[in-house]
Specification:
Pfam families: Ku_PK_bind. It comes from Salmo salar (Atlantic salmon). The chain has 7 helices and no strands. The protein has 153 residues and is mainly alpha-helical.
Length: 153
């Protein structure tokens, strides 16, 4: 006998699979399912452990893929921007590096018509932090003028 299992929430065992199932079932609004997934991601990230980071990557990949498929970039883009701004405060740079490595960036206009980001914006989103760090490093390394001024005194 075949039993149909109806899912009502994104669980912790396989959140990415649960998210896909809920989207496919269409039993809940897309935004509500996205909110459940991001809540689960936040819970996992709160553990600050590489095993949980590894579990979050497929969640974010699936979130992005399903958002593109459904044609709604807003929830994903808002979440990924919010996540990026919280990385330094929360000490999640290691996790962010994994997202950058997997190129999990903003959904752009070429992927979803309603997106407000160009493909250039999406590419820039992941590289912006690296460039800022390089500029800061260059400024910090250039102490020659200060040393020269002090020598003149």
């Amino acid at each position: 006998m075949f039993t149909c299992v109806f899912l009502y929430q994104v669980g912790s065992v396989d959140p990415a699979r649960d998210f896909r199932t809920l989207i496919r079932q269409k039993s809940l609004p897309f935004g509500e399912v996205c909110q459940q997934l991001t809540g689960r991601i936040e819970q996992l990230l709160g553990n600050k452990n590489m095993n949980y980071y590894i579990k979050c990557i497929p969640c974010i990949q699936t979130f992005r893929e399903q958002s593109v498929q459904v044609g709604n970039a807003d929830h994903y883009n808002s979440y990924i921007q919010s996540l990026k701004t919280s990385i330094p405060v929360r000490g999640l740079q290691e996790f962010w590096d994994m997202l950058v490595q997997d190129a999990l960036t903003l959904i752009n206009k070429d992927e979803v018509d309603g997106s407000r980001f160009s493909s250039h914006d999406a590419k820039q989103f992941l590289t912006a932090e690296e460039k800022k760090e390089e500029v800061v490093a260059a400024v910090v390394d250039d102490t020659g003028d200060v040393d020269d001024l002090l020598d003149m005194m």
